[in-house]
Specification:
The protein has 144 residues and is an alpha/beta fold. It contains five helices and five strands; from the N terminus they run E-H-E-H-E-H-H-E-H-E. It has one domain. Strands 1-2-3-4-5 form a five-stranded parallel beta sheet, with helices on both faces. The longest helix has 23 residues. The chain is globular and about 40 Å long.
Amino acid sequence: MIKLINLPAINPDDSDDHALNQRELVESMLPVVEHVVRFNHLTQYSQINIFWLDPHQSLDQAGRQLLDFMASLAGTHTLWVPLSSSHTALVNALSMVLPGLQCLDLSSVVMVYIGDQGISHPLGRIAASCGMPFYFQACLQGSI
């Protein structure tokens, strides 16, 4: 099961192109997410949580949403995929809430990153500092 988190609702009577584009971006990533999960033998995770970080919101708001979301996953055996159209916003939000993340039990919460290789190493370091297993779509060896 794939659960999409933090995506804006689309009102059929509204012509909000931004919300529609966000949903299309996330939905276009689903086949890649499913491939990475199968390739890295992560199929034992019954739920995949895809967290959308909206780069148009404030860093404080993004950080709070991210920390609340991760707190809801703490202590569970689950998989999550952070997505954003801004890699910088994603790294900045995770870095900002890192002290809070380090206080959570994330050892059985797997991060799968689909995106720019340039930030795979910073995300891998953030995940490692939280005790979170980390997988990147282009990494053939699995966890970094």
